[in-house]
Amino acid sequence: MGMRRSGGGHWGPGGGRHRGGGRGGRRMFESGQLRLVLLKLLDDEPRHGYDLIRAIEELTGGGYTPSPGIVYPTLSLLQDSGDIEELEAEGARKAFAITDQGRAELEEKKGEVATLFERLSSFGERHRKSDGAPIRRAMGNLGAVLEHRLSREGVEDELVHQVTAIIDEAAQKIERL
């Protein structure tokens, strides 16, 4: 299965979107693992498919978002097997709840589920630590200030040298961290 680039990440063969610092092409979920994650999330509270997608994204610190094309078929399989049931809804979105049969499966596989959620949490922690958003914001701010300050008519060479010295000093301080 190929990969499609899109926006700030890529769609991987595991049916989800990995952002920055990917997992070397490894799938987020191996066979049956997404099923367990969805069961556990539904055990916590009834949810719509979209809510489940967002919950997984949140668990991974925004580093992975499962695609609807993998979540909704898995929900259908869970419903067909009797592990979840559709709740009465007033809108077009279907909400699901776990059944006693689904809870029994979670209990039977609670070690695997705990390990799986620990892995998702660790992935999220690594993603949050490597997320360069604050640095990108600061660099953008610096660029905007430089463009504004140095684009004026009659900028003196002395000002250019002062700005250069400040930037060089900041680079040296960062290098020493």
UniProtKB/TrEMBL annotation:
- What is the name attached to this protein's record? Helix-turn-helix transcriptional regulator
Native source species: Parasphingopyxis marina
Query: Which SUPFAM superfamilies does the annotation name?
Result: Winged helix' DNA-binding domain
Q: Where is the Transcription regulator PadR N-terminal domain?
A: 38-108
Q: Per its UniProt record, what InterPro entries does this chain match?
A: Tscrpt_reg_PadR_N (IPR005149), WH-like_DNA-bd_sf (IPR036388), WH_DNA-bd_sf (IPR036390)
Map out region (Disordered) in residue numbers.
1-26
Q: Where is the composition biased (Gly residues)?
A: 1-15
Where in the sequence does UniProt note compositional bias of the Basic residues kind? 16-26
